[in-house]
Amino acid sequence: MSRVLVLNSGSSSVKYRLFDGSSTIAKGLVERIGESGGEVADHRAALQGIMDETDLSGLVAVGHRVVHGGPDFTGPTVIDDDVVARVEALVPLAPLHNPAALTGIEVARKLLPDVPQVAVFDTAFHATIPPEGVTWAIDRSLAERWQIRRYGFHGTSHAYVSRRTAHVLGRDPASTNVITLHLGNGASACAVEGGRSVATSMGMSPLPGLVMGTRSGDIDPTVIFHLHRVAGLPLDEIENSLTRHGGLLGLSGDNDLRTVLERRAAGDADATLAFDVYCRRIREYVGAYLAVLGRVDAITFTAGVGENAPAVRAASLAGLEPLDIEVDPERNERREEIISPPGARIPVCVIPTDEELEIAGQSRTALSLPD
Ligand code: AMP
């Protein structure tokens, strides 16, 4: 038995999945932790509940999803006190995300002291992006002092779907170049060259890049100065607006693309513009990453929107036939694994992501355990 428990601890939730090899034998979600009307008072109670309900015999590892690994964590890392201290030191870089993971780690280490624990970082896959792809052209001394650079996120997803894409196409991942489009509630694009990330659209935080459910994606930073100086909004309010009231929600009033699509079908102008801005941004990144990679062997859509919205897949790539990029309408509607026409030079794929499975696999790798 080679069981791995994967924990994804949010500020008020814990998602868990127990794997035996690659099979899921238990999973669940504890929500509204510490909130009135919630099931449990704190993360400790949440994890204790999960452990009481789940048969953890044969557990060889606990894999923790950690959003921000900063500049130093470049792969899955076996957790000890030093690692905990280093993840704590990264909290200023990820104040919204890392504290929850730390709570999950602390509680799991107490409750399962004999089971090795591994941190798997959303940023780590992007450690292979060359310096010119992570450096912004700002004052270097400021950037170095405050660890300002692109880190990128969704790494476990981009790693997993780019590898799966190569397998689906019968190719070796080490010689396959893929543009991966992770379009979920959060969304990011990644250029993967021979299994290594060489460009990605998120930055120091998960805010820039593609248009998301509630995050703005790329904007001119001057928007922030303007809203602060001219409109008089406090910085916290601007951050809240860009992260929680931007994206599809800001443009249309709805953050769920399903609703946006329904309203667009009924002729709603705001929903139509939201959809157009969303798809146009994807196309801009596809174009950029074609240029970064030079040779592209596949373009892959994944996550909630990428896997379930044929209209987004079609509109994002429409008009790119001169670049040998084409979506076959019937294959797209049926959501086949390959949605480009037979024999296309650049296949377009739809590959369901599985971040927890990837975290389980990477946790085993970090401990040199067999799959
Ligand atoms: P994720 O973060 O990967 O779970 O993706 C969640 C998002 O996927 C939701 O906010 C929806 O906007 C989108 N989504 C899920 N199902 C569909 C669907 N059938 N059509 C369009 N969008 C969908």
UniProtKB/TrEMBL annotation:
Subcellular location: Cytoplasm
Predominant location: cytoplasm
UniProt keywords, alphabetically: ATP-binding, Cytoplasm, Kinase, Magnesium, Metal-binding, Nucleotide-binding, Transferase
Annotated site, Transition state stabilizer, chain positions: H154, R215
EC number: 2.7.2.1
Free-text comment on the cofactor: Mg(2+). Can also accept Mn(2+).
Positions of ATP binding: K15, H182, L183, G184, N185, G186, D256, L257, R258, G304, V305, G306, E307, N308
Active-site residues, Swiss-Prot/TrEMBL: D122
Catalytic activities: acetate + ATP = acetyl phosphate + ADP
Residues noted as binding Mg(2+) in the record, renumbered to the chain: N8, E355
Main EC class the enzyme belongs to: transferase
Pathway listed: Metabolic intermediate biosynthesis; acetyl-CoA biosynthesis; acetyl-CoA from acetate: step 1/2
Molecular functions (GO terms): kinase activity
Family according to the record: Belongs to the acetokinase family.
Record's function text: Catalyzes the formation of acetyl phosphate from acetate and ATP. Can also catalyze the reverse reaction.
Record's protein name: Acetate kinase
Species of origin: Paractinoplanes pyxinae
